[in-house]
């Protein structure tokens, strides 16, 4: 968090209303996302209680796991819906011509799945569920689709760890990118209070009052995956007991199951509506240009996963081996750096944040030396125009620092000199890229005198580090002896909970 | 009854005391600087009842389903005289022998017994001491549901660890049965930390027991064993942890509790947190009076209080009224170190207040942030 968001949090506390942070949406938002609200059973690691899902706000599908016995039929129904949604994304593909020898021509799906969940805890729950399901034996139709569901959940939750990915998005984090509330980030994890701050109902004086009202223990409910203790004690436990009684007495269980369904439907409906409310708020935001590229990337990743599933299909191991883990980490770092750089280029708010952290400065162009040239190593003159920017920002940079500017995306700059004069700082910059050769100079690169520009620290040039192949990996890091069995728990993933 | 006890029970009022337990001791570790919590816990006041009377959300209410599940897992582990447990401990502790004596101390004392905890404690004590005094290589004992006693601020507090294991090299181990899962070898780190802090209380209590009898307290190992369900099953798995850090911190905080008389001295005379239950057991104390009484003791609210304190929402509302940074999370608090309230910070930002010498840097940074934000609104950036 930057000092700017800290300041906005304080202002929001003082006024009682949330403040807009970024005005641009940095994640692609599908026209037909799969909204998914999951509840887990209190106690067991990953036993679902209920899932409400669908692409239509008015007709959600509600799936209920029975209080005791196998959850496989319920999971199979969930698998059917999720797989149908994912399959629909594979229907069309586009042709991408070869770019280079490394990138041959290939096809890419024109769509990718997007699942929206209320909060980061649900992502964790789905990850656990994926871990539990993807190693299941696929003996019959039902368990096959459940195993496939486990595979997709693992893929999606894995994508959710990657900055800038839009495959599985927790709505509270998404809203948090655009609004700053007057409560703590921990409290922002609660969808109901977060939305109360952001978009209070008409009859409340402020977001703060609305949030306080939302917290009323009589009406407040968690947005999953955990259920409130009060709900467990007052509603679920008696119903579970009743169900157990009918079970032992060999009586018909349909009545208690129908009652459970009614209870959970009523419990989940308000959160379901809030999720669509959040979706509507987010959809109204203009999309940043960089999000298209990231969505392209998302579709590539999705296409690759589809190919992996049809050609190989082995589940991801329970724990990555050393090289795979290092590759994953490198990918995440790369994605984080690229996401940060693209946000800085697209979004004035991101640049403002960088200015308060010292990773950027903004100022007015006062002098342009368009004639400045250098002698290159071969003795040919090189055109290197210089500018002087006057800024009042606290500068924490040294000469030699490479910079980029959002207004001239192709250009690169280096700080030549920094002089402090009174409260202002004069920064002399040299344009080092994007100006064209001396013979055919690109004058468009030069800013207007008096223009206000923000310069941010240029992102490091990224090269994926080289990792050893499996044969060259020492056994301490998961290399040969080959075909070391993974510790899957197939024999244990029974329904004995 | 000591005068300290009298003063504490005056704070509590008519309700019977709710003694400290491993959970409240663990909470002490989480927020040791909170005077309000120290005092209320020392007086044995039911915080949940306070919160309920004040109409606050109760984030700590226990789910019956969670309790049932935990109990079922514990029964599974300790079934058949600890049969599933022995191989796990043998592996975790390197027990070499196959025979292990198992004793459940839960059944001691009849239902009519007014102080079963006391009875179970003396039984536990004699078992442990006899095991400790005899030749160590002959006695390998598992004590299920023992009761230990720890002195907290001059009071005897009874604690119930799940199991105490006695190993053949003369060391005692605390074994805790917890129902959160270890998935692919990875448990939830926050839950492990909480479990270890509770275990630290047991280690300290056990050491106290040995030390009282002139035995070296180091015979209680700082290695703690957690038994959890493995992956998505109910099959138990044992993991050993070193709880040295937790033991050290907890004993330090317990020492700090000696300053209770000082805290009591600061209270205005006649202060009480009594709920004044009427004939129908419902509290009759006016809420305003109760909040005023609470306000006489300094709280130290943090956003994580809701994970271990029933009064978290009360303290949060109070902190909000005072404009404290703690309500906005640690990041904001750290960003604005050196300034006391949100009102002051905003006044400094807007130039309505002149910064003190040590506030100049942060004021300048805030004003710059404000200027940048204004640039943003006018679209020049």
TrEMBL record, chain A:
Source domain of life: Bacteria
Bias (Acidic residues): 488-497
Chain residue ranges for the region called Disordered: 464-497
Comp. bias regions, Basic and acidic residues: 464-474
Protein name listed in UniProt: Uncharacterized protein
């Amino acid at each position: 968090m930057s000092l700017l968001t800290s300041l906005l949090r304080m202002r929001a506390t003082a006024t009682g209303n949330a403040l807009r942070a970024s005005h641009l949406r940095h994640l692609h938002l599908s026209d037909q996302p799969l909204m998914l609200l999951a509840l887990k059973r209190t106690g067991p690691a990953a036993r679902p209680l209920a899932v409400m899902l669908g692409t239509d706000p008015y007709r959600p599908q509600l799936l209920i796991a029975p209080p005791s016995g196998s959850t496989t039929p319920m999971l199979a129904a969930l698998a059917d819906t999720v797989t149908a949604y994912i399959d629909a994304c594979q229907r069309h593909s586009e042709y991408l011509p070869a770019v280079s020898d490394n990138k041959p021509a290939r096809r890419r799906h024109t769509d990718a799945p997007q699942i929206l969940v209320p909060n980061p805890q649900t992502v964790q729950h789905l990850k656990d569920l994926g871990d539990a399901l993807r190693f299941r034996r696929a003996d019959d139709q039902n368990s096959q689709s459940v195993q496939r569901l486990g595979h997709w959940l693992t893929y999606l939750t894995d994508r959710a760890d990657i900055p800038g990915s839009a495959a599985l998005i927790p709505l509270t984090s998404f809203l948090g990118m655009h609004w700053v509330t007057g409560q703590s980030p921990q409290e922002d994890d609660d969808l109901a209070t977060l939305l109360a701050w952001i978009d209070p109902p008409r009859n409340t004086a402020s977001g703060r009052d609305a949030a306080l009202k939302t917290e009323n223990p009589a009406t407040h409910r968690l947005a999953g995956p955990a259920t409130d203790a009060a709900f467990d004690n007052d509603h679920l436990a008696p119903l579970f007991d009743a169900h157990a009684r009918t079970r032992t007495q060999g009586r018909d269980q349909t009545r208690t199951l129908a009652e459970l369904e009614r209870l959970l439907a009523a419990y989940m409906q308000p959160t379901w509506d809030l999720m669509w409310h959040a979706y509507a708020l987010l959809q109204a935001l203009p999309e940043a240009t960089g999000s298209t590229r990231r969505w392209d990337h998302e579709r590539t990743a999705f296409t690759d996963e589809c190919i992996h599933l049809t050609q190989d299909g082995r589940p991801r191991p329970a724990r990555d081996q050393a090289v795979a883990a290092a590759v994953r980490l490198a990918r995440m770092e790369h994605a984080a750096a690229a996401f940060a750089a693209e946000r800085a280029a697209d979004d004035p708010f991101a640049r403002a944040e960088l200015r308060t952290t010292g990773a950027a400065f903004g100022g007015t162009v006062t002098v342009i030396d368009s004639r400045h040239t250098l002698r290159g190593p071969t003795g040919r003159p090189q055109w290197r125009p210089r500018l002087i920017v006057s800024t009042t920002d606290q500068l924490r940079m040294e000469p030699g620092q490479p910079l980029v500017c959002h207004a001239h995306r192709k250009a690169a700059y280096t700080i030549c000199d920094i002089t402090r004069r009174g409260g202002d700082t004069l920064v002399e910059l040299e344009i080092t890229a994007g100006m064209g050769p001396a013979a055919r100079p690109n004058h468009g690169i030069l800013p207007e005198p008096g223009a206000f520009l923000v310069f941010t620290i240029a992102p490091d040039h990224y090269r994926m580090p080289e990792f050893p192949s499996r044969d060259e990996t020492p056994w301490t890091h998961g290399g040969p002896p080959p075909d070391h069995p993974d510790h899957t728990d197939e024999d244990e993933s029974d329904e004995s909970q | 009854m000591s005068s300290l006890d009298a003063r504490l029970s005056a704070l509590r009022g008519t309700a019977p005391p709710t003694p400290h337990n491993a959970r409240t001791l663990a909470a002490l570790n989480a927020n040791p600087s909170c005077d309000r919590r120290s005092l209320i816990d020392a007086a044995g006041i039911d915080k949940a009842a306070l919160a309920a009377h004040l109409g606050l959300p109760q984030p700590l209410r226990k789910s019956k389903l969670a309790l049932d599940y935990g109990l079922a897992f514990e029964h599974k582990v300790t079934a058949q005289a600890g049969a599933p447990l022995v191989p796990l401990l043998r592996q975790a502790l390197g027990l070499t022998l196959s025979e292990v004596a198992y004793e459940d101390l839960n059944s001691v004392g009849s239902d009519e017994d007014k102080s079963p905890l006391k009875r179970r404690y003396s039984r536990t004590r004699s078992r442990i001491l006899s095991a400790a005094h005899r030749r160590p290589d002959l006695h390998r004992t598992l004590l299920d549901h023992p009761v230990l006693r720890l002195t907290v601020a001059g009071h005897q507090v009874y604690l119930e660890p799940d199991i105490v294991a006695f190993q053949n090299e003369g060391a005692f181990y605390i074994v805790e049965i917890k129902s959160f899962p270890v998935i692919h070898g990875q448990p939830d780190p926050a839950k492990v930390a909480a479990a270890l802090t509770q275990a630290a209380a047991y280690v300290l209590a056990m050491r106290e027991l040995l030390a009282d009898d002139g035995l070296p307290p180091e015979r209680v190992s700082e290695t703690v064993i957690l038994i959890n369900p493995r992956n998505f099953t109910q099959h138990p798995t044992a993991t050993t942890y070193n709880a040295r850090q937790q033991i050290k911190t907890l004993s330090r905080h317990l020492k700090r509790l000696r300053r209770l008389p000082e805290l009591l001295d600061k209270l205005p005379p006649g202060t009480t947190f009594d709920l004044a239950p009427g004939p129908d057991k419902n509290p009759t104390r006016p809420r305003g009076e109760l909040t005023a009484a609470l306000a006489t003791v300094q709280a130290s609210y943090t956003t994580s209080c809701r994970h271990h304190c029933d009064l978290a929402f009360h303290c949060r509302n109070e902190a909000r009224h005072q404009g404290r940074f703690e309500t906005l999370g640690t990041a904001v608090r750290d960003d604005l170190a050196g300034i006391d309230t949100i009102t002051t910070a905003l006044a400094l930002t807007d130039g309505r207040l002149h910064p003190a010498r040590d506030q100049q840097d942060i004021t300048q940074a805030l004003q710059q942030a404000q200027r940048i934000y204004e640039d943003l609104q006018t679209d020049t950036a």
